Amino acid sequence: MFDSEVQRILDFVARGIGVRVVGAPGSGKTTVVRSVVANLRKTGVTVHFVSGMRTHRNIPYAAIKGLGLEMRPGRSGVLDIADVFSSQLASAGKHLLVVDDLHLVDNESLAVLEAVRRRSDWPMVATAPETWAFSRGQLAVLNNGREAHLQLDPLHYEQVHTLIAQVLGAPADAETTARVLTKSGGNPRLIVRIAETASLSNLVAMQGEQWSMTTNTLWNEHLRGTLEALLAELGPEEFNALHIMAILGTARIDVLQKVVHPDVLESLERRGFLSVLNDHHNGAIGAITPPVIADYFRGQKMLRDRHLLRSKIAGVLDAVPQTDRDTSTTADCLTLVLAELRLEKGDDDAVTARHFHDHNAARERVRFERWESNKTAANAAALLRIYWGAPVDVQRATRVCAETMTSDAGSGDLLFVTITKAMLAVHTGQGPGAAVEILQKFIADHPQHAAEAKDAILFLSASHGRVPSGPWLVEPEQQSSGVGKLVRGLIELYRFRPAAALESTDGGDEEDTFPHLRPFIRGFALFAEGRIEESLVFALGWRTEARKNLDQFGVVTSSYIAAHGLLYRGQFEEAEYLMSSVFAMGRPGFVVDSLYDAMLRLAGLRHAATAISPALSIAAQARAEAPDVGPLPGIGKGAYQVITNDSAKPSTFDRKATKLIRRQLKSGYILEAVMTALVCTCLCPGRPVLDILQRILRESGNTVHDQLIGIANAVVEGDHKLLGLLLKHYEPDPDTYQVGMLLRGALKRHVIDGDAAAADAIAQASSMFAVRFPSANEQLSFNTFSTTPLTEREIEVAMLAGHRSNVEIGEHLGISARTVENHISNALRKTGATSRNGLFMLVATSLPLS
Fold first, then answer.
1. Count of CB atoms within 10 A of residue 822's CB?
2. Are 626 and 635 in contact (CB under 8 A)?
3. Helix or strand or coil: residue 149?
């Protein structure tokens, strides 16, 4: 098979030229060298054969001792061994030094070989992997004297046909030969092993005078050892990358680089395990080579069971156009957008933020210079529109609003400048009243725009204090503009009428005065209606487009919607990343700054979910002057304060939450009240808050949360038999995560109240539910009732207090029983628990799951 290569090496050696034989693992390097050795020995050449071994490369002198050199006692240093070896090479006759697998030779043996080569002129034949990154010691051995380079390339079809015949004793048919060639990538070792194991496994059989395939695969378990040896030199990152590529199959390089670090891909390509080809339609594409490696990974149970790995790249297959996106279900689309979000984690938030900043700064400079040269309303509107999303220069924005010429201005531009001026007044602390005065003066000066200005007044009034009541809320009057329809839609959203809010977004207008108001209403209305998956697909798709367009306004608004959806589903890792990517951009413009603060508080809730509260919470970055209630969840700071502030007893928590929810309802912010009541009920289910929640849902005609409400009633009433039946017959819905949180919240409440029987019953119900819905058990567990945080030692003691005595705990932790007693006493006081077992259950449910 390698006659020509063997002959070339013999010719070089005859001329005193050394040869470096390189090729991929299994390419036949050792076979070629051994054939050369056999031929030379027949001609009387003395061959000194040194072989590197993977298991011996860290054993000093392991390779060189394989020569069987006779050493005198006490003389075993590098130069001592080199002296003995050199004396052998100096003996009469021709000599050849052969080093097989140079890359596996230990350093001490390399040092001996270097010394010997410096003293001898005899040629050396060495083998090494293709494109191996040689160490200095290896290069020192190679780079002595003249050297030829011999590359062992993959076998061609004809050679494969011949090799199969040699292995199996008869040739294979064309289909079998082609399949063996493609699966092996022309690697001789793999060709032999595939042919042998296929025959052993009855995957090929003799039909006439040829071997033919009996199935559509050549993979079999007998190939596992061969593939493991082939992959033995790979590091963990490279091995994991092959796992990913096995799932993806042939994929575009840009797709691969989102899930595998480019350096790892380069390493795999250098080692010969990644093949990159140019595709005129998709650009460069990559695939595992030899392809049988992909079969190796796909054939392993551990690949099918690697849920984290599969979730990491879920949807990437769909990134390569294979099916019509329009025919995908909502679940398919959600898988795709979530996969894109996870892949985005590989991006550098700092670089992305700088890209946004540079883009916004350049646009602002150009548009400001254009306005300064011609202070028209059109130029002013173009500049001010930037400040709705990007960081605002208050001084410059104020000047533009004051100095812009209004004569001959277009109605749309003039209205936009006036609305921006009103919002800037709110942003600078003058309050909604000053903003309304600006708009009322505009109506007096421009009565032809009275309808649009009144809509703007309605928007400002509803968004900064109270939703006005009026007959239009029941039966809308004729609307004079698209702005009016959207403003009314937004207020319907505030009042928890998502169907009406969605209706207002029909018939999109590209010239909306309020940028992004239409998609914002639609995305959050889907969330409010309980269509969480649809809301996420919409919001994350919008966010992707906004990032591509460097639209900070769109990124913040879409991220706010998506963050609520992710948190509601319990996907905290994705939500945290999404919000952190927004935070990396810095505080946005004055229109969406309240959404930015809301996300800071949402992220703060995540930080508050640890047994030991952090010294600094990211929520502290939100502006403290925000009101307690707001038009949308998280806009007001009241819910965050109720949840995160210490409450000594559940009854205190009930009282604070009920008071806040009533204030939200009084302001007309029913959507915020619903979300506050939902989360408070799940964290600490109590009758006062649950009654308000049920009343709101009943009056609004909302049935999405019926299963959750039924379970909550059973929990609050202590009807454990009914609770068991409800949980047994529970069908997954948007509230699956909330049900798990509700059960854990009830457990904590019973522990604090000292009701051991109820706590045990709820614990059992919670465990059964967690078995049915494992993801719903991965809860945030807020420290609602911690008057002060427990120390690490107190947590350790509390985790043992439920089933060990003080003496046993002391022996386990290496402290005295009296110290254990003190820790338990302090922990009981801090948590409000009434017993050791209650303390154990409370701390156990508070610790975040790993």
1. 14
2. yes
3. strand
CB of 684 closer than 8 Å to CB of 748? yes
Which pLDDT score is estimated for 764? 82
pTM for the model: 0.59
Most confident of 10-19, 351-360, 568-577, 767-776: 10-19
List CB contacts of 768: < 8 A, sequence separation 6 or more. Answer: 724, 727
Asked if 752 and 842 touch (Cβ cutoff 8 Å), the reply is yes
Kindly write down the DSSP assignment for every residue of 809-820, as one continuous string: HHHHHTS-HHHH
As a whole number, mean pLDDT of residues 567-595 equals: 83
**Greater confidence, 120 or 277?**
120
Asked if residues 423 and 456 have their Cβ atoms less than 8 Å apart, the reply is: no
Q: Which helix (H) or strand (E) holds 490?
A: helix 482-494
Residue 21, H or E segment: strand 18-23
Tell me the CB-side half-sphere exposure of residue 3, using CA atoms within 13 A: 2
* φ, ψ dihedrals at 206, nearest 5°: -75, 125
Burial pattern 762-785, b for ≥16 Cβ within 10 A else e, equals: bbebbeebbeeeeebbebbbbbbb
Strand residue runs (E) in 184-231 = 204-207, 210-213
DSSP state of 611: S
Buried b (16+ CB within 10 A) or exposed e, 193-212: bbbbbbbebebbeeeeebbe
Tally of CB atoms within 10 A around 366: 12
Q: What is the per-residue pLDDT across 197-250, written as a single tens digit (0 to 9) for each?
A: 999 999 999 988 889 889 888 888 899 899 888 888 888 889 888 888 887 776
